[in-house]
Design goal:
This protein is of the alpha/beta class. It contains 14 helices and 13 strands. The protein folds into two domains: 130 residues, NAD(P)-binding Rossmann-like Domain (Rossmann fold); 169 residues, Dihydrodipicolinate Reductase, domain 2, CATH 3.30.360. It has a seven-stranded mixed sheet.
Amino acid sequence: MKSVVIGASGYTGAELLRILANHPDIEVVSAGAASHAGQAISALYPSLLPYYGQSVFSEVDALINDLVNRSQKVDVVFLALPHGLSQAIVPKIYDRVALIVDLSADFRLKNPEDYKIWYNAVHTSPKYLKKAVYGLPELNRDELKEARLIAAAGCYVTCSTLPLAPLLSEELVESYSIIIDAASGVSGAGRSVKADYMYTEIEENFSAYGLKNHRHTPEIEQNLGAKVLFTPHLLPVNRGILATTYSLPTAKFHDIAISGSDAEKSGSELIQSCLAEAYGNEPFVFATATPPAIKSTLGSNNAMVYGTYDSRTNTVITVSVLDNLVKGASGQAIQCANIALGLPESAGLVSLGLYP
């Protein structure tokens, strides 16, 4: 199958190129980059030289025109663009290719009014919000089969959703009491040059941002059907996300877990059992016996989740990690594409991480 990556000069675009280079069924035939058109891919990302050689980035508008005019056969288009840009592209190419996978937030929220509230912008393609299928396989794998437009879930959202969704589904935690503290590496902010992301600002520093109104909040709430207080933080590392969540246990939780003599042990075992059962057959999500660290998933499409119960404060705590550029972005997009195209779900995806 032939694919095109638009927005290939950014970190998620480059990660798409890296992963697709080893995909047995999907070949990259063009990589579009507005600011680097005509430049060799390997000049910007030397690590890609062994596969892409002297191939150059294509001009984005010309590439879109080729897709509209069907100048070359393309099966899949991956859009790795800043938020807001895919809304103008999708309507032009929707009927020209078998599948579009958008890595931005442009088609993740089902209510167009939410874009006014959280992104301070009017959604220009609300018709395609209805056509888009949300891309988080562990939540909606069946919906992804034969999808035409996929809105791949983002990094913070995936890391926050995976540990909480089973607990809410099994009614073990209350839906009104959820607090999420998540910390991401700097690559999550993209490749653009900003003073806040300079080495002198990041090194030996740690900060919270987007308090009370971060734009990924409604996406998490849409996934969970619950209100959350979400606070992201910036870590002085290249890549990786760790999310810690806190929630109140339900009466059902207490009925099951607190019947034993050691409430903390039985409660923790209940949470761990719920996560293990939810993800026991998943190819890329693993329930762990101890809290995971971001290096546990570095470079892989894996996510790891852990849960416990603190009887002193009557709080359920989860810890989850993933690589923000892989399971949090490009790997997730390819996993979704594999499902939609009827390919093996793990095709091209690495399940063993890098360490140290």
